Amino acid sequence: MVIENKKTIFECSECGKEYSSKRQATECEKDDMYEEKTKQIERTVVFTITENHLNLLKRLNVEWYDCEFGAPCIDPKRPYGNSNVESDIYEMTKMKGDKALFIHKEMQIVLQIIFATGLIETGDYEKQDQYDYQSWQKMTN
Ligand SMILES: [Zn+2]
Description:
Elements: E1 10-11, E2 18-19, H1 22-43, E3 46-49, H2 51-59, E4 62-65, E5 71-74, H3 85-93, H4 97-117, E6 123-127, E7 136-138
Antiparallel strand pairs: 1-2, 3-6, 4-5, 6-7
């Protein structure tokens, strides 16, 4: 006897990929949205450094990455000293979940601004050219 196989397919609303479980599709959507948000952060040409950023900055775990010429780097496993990164971020900013992940990602821009301007100050900054991370300047208003 022929059996009609009715499989439910779950589709990620962000990228259209199909999954056999709702959990996988939901995870795909979450990953896609996170990726989009991190791209937005990287492409931004206007950025505000807050006290939260400066608090995180004080805890950044600077190491030496011994590859090719070697270079200073932030330990990606323990960026703020402990392997429980969300807990470290919460301790310093009281941010949780996505907010914590995004402020962590924003530290890339904070370091670009500090290195380009020589300033470690809260405030608004702008980049002259989207692809020139050395062109960050403090906005005067
Ligand atoms: Zn997806």
